Amino acid sequence: MIRQIMLVALLVIWNGQAHAETLHSLPALEQPESRLQIYGAADYPAIAPLMAQFQKRNPRVSIDYTEFNTRVLYLRFLEEQPSSVDLVLSSAMDLQIKLINDGYAQPHQSMETDALPRWANWRNEIFGFTYEPAVIAINRDFLEGESLPRSRSELLSLIRRKGDLVKGRIGTFDIERVGVGYLTWAHDRQQSGSYGRMLESFGTHHARRFPSSSSMLEALASGEIVIAYNLLGSYALAWAKQYPVISVIMPEDYTVLVMRSAFIPKRAENLQNARLFLNYLLSREGQQLLANRSSLFPIRDDVTGEQTAHNLRRSSQSRFQPIPLGLSLLVHTDKAKRRLILDEWDASMKTIE
């Protein structure tokens, strides 16, 4: 059977800014058909192998997977209430927890949710399914014999030495509009002694703001930028395999670990299919599929492979700092706190067009 996957690229406007969203429609393999609607922030190629295998096991389920950046996903979900999709997947842990705390999720418990590490299951309402580092990536061509920086302090020293060579060629997330970018930057503000110097250096050197890890990596591979900061490690490592000019650094001072999480909305229209997919996503088979056929880091401890949460936590190469899944994340969603962080950001980045 030849399968046709429909892709629809849409342009939506949030706060006066244009953002792309893409709908990937996978028709059912058999009739009669039932539906599953997912909002997700994972790049479709990273999650597609798992969806294809899920459909082989559930051939009557058609899947609509709409891909957003993390903050647009959050805003779209709220705008559509009381209507709702069936499943929400995002790496913006603070926004996910806010939705759960505000009562938008329904509980779910199964053998698969019980098999998760305890820290990846909060109240049986939200579940971590991948675990990955926020990293620095560098285009080695511009180093000209210099060693790769191993920490934020060494990165700042490199930027100072290279001066005009890096001006306008440092990339990071647009933290105002990318949820996971805001989350990792807010964590830096709490943890990093070099936060103030990093913010000043980025502003002085006209750092550029990007809507996604993939867009940053595309610019890095082409040489348009030479440093990418706080992008997601799963994407960075996958691009580094394809483009050897890219080196990925897990900073030795600390490396943030972010969970992608999933929840079933309280008003999900196709509840049974949502439960089936969530269970498969969290199952050993589904997690092993992520390890073998995607760039994502599966979260279960019984999954084997180079890029797994288990191997990350065992590694001594970097000082990992996991962001916990729970109410402590709500501090980042506090309006006054968010405004303070964004005002600091805007004051330093005011020279950026």
Structure commentary:
With 353 residues, the protein is an alpha/beta fold. The protein folds into two domains: 6-131 and 259-320, 3-Layer(aba) Sandwich (D-Maltodextrin-Binding Protein, domain 2); 132-256 and 332-348, D-Maltodextrin-Binding Protein, domain 2 (3-Layer(aba) Sandwich), CATH 3.40.190.10. The chain is 38% helix and 23% strand. It contains 13 helices and 13 strands. Strand 3, helix 1 and strand 4 (61-67) form a beta-alpha-beta unit. Helix 1 crosses helix 11 (284-293). It is globular. 44% of the residues are buried. Mean pLDDT is 89; it is low at 9-19.
CATH architecture of the largest domain: 3-Layer(aba) Sandwich
Whole-number count of domains:
2
Largest β-sheet summary: 13 strands, mixed
Write down the Rg: 20 Å
The total of beta strands comes to 13
Low-confidence stretches: 9-19
Summary of the model, kept short:
With 353 residues, the protein is α/β, with parallel strands linked by helices.
Features:
single chain; 353 residues; alpha/beta; D-Maltodextrin-Binding Protein, domain 2; 2 domains; 13-stranded mixed β-sheet; 13 strands; 38% helix; 23% strand; globular
Describe the SSE topology.
Layout: E1 6-14, E2 17-26, E3 34-40, H1 44-57, E4 61-67, H2 70-79, E5 87-90, H3 93-101, H4 111-114, E6 121-122, E7 126-139, H5 152-162, E8 170-173, H6 179-191, H7 195-204, E9 208-210, H8 213-222, E10 227-232, H9 233-242, E11 246-249, E12 255-263, H10 271-282, H11 284-293, H12 309-314, E13 320-322, H13 335-348
Parallel strand pairs: 3-4, 3-5, 8-9, 8-10, 12-13
Antiparallel strand pairs: 1-2, 2-4, 5-12, 6-7, 7-10, 7-11, 7-12
